[in-house]
Design brief:
31% of the residues lie in helices and 9% in strands. By secondary structure, it is of the alpha+beta class. The protein folds into 2 domains: 40 residues, no CATH class; 43 residues. It is extended and about 40 Å long.
């Protein structure tokens, strides 16, 4: 959102987050000991939430993986490339985790304390 004030200056900070606000969720997830047992969750504004449908689209995930490998392959060792693959490689998909199906169920209501 952008508004122009009477002096002609553009004002953008009406909906934007400060750097501190923008970093809060990442920092909270990295240092909050209460989150140690919560894995495979997406956080927004320091709260778990469902990620977008696009983020759970396996076709998009494969394309992102291929493009990511393509962009960084010059910086990777041949052992890493052999392990994780590259464009056109049969092992180019991201390594599988124990959870193969994305969580698409709604999250439980937050505790009020």
């Amino acid at each position: 959102m952008c508004f122009t004030c009477s002096s002609g200056l553009l004002v953008f900070n009406l909906v934007a987050r400060t750097p501190k606000e923008g970093a809060a969720t990442s920092i909270n997830c990295a240092v909050n000991p209460q989150l140690n047992s919560r894995q495979c969750l997406y956080y927004d504004s320091c709260r778990p939430t469902n990620s977008s449908a696009d983020s759970r689209n396996e076709g998009y995930q494969e394309v992102l993986w291929e493009k990511s490998i393509e962009m960084v392959k010059h910086f990777l060792s041949s052992a890493t490339l052999a392990k994780y693959g590259g464009a056109g490689s049969p092992s180019s998909a991201p390594p599988q985790t124990e959870q193969t199906e994305p969580k698409t169920t709604p999250l439980p209501a937050e505790d009020s304390h």
